[in-house]
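Review form for a predicted model. The reviewer records the input and the model, then writes brief findings.
Reviewer: anonymous (R2)
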Amino acid sequence: MEKYLLLVIIISVEAIFLLLQKKSRTFELRDKGIEICYWKLSYRRRLIRTLWFIPIAVIELVWFYFTFKSGFLTCVIGILCGGELIIQLVYNYRHWKNGDGG
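Model under review:
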């Protein structure tokens, strides 16, 4: 039961993260320095942050497999996270190359 509660928390955090990305931009995007808020980064910096997240996602999937002992559940989570990463990569790359917002 505790494992499924952890799964619900992880999915909830992902959903909140995606909703916050859609927040309207009334501020300047940053391309230099440290910035905690993802949505304040330029598209180039978002792309770099997404690329850095790939090894972390692989480690999380390995941890997920050994915690839940379910290959099917790990595959489902892997497909969802992998799909999200690919969408973020393509989206941020296109906006960066088009010159949108930095």
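Findings: The longest helix spans residues 71-98.
Further findings: Helices lie at 2-21, 43-68, 71-98.
Recommendation: see findings above.
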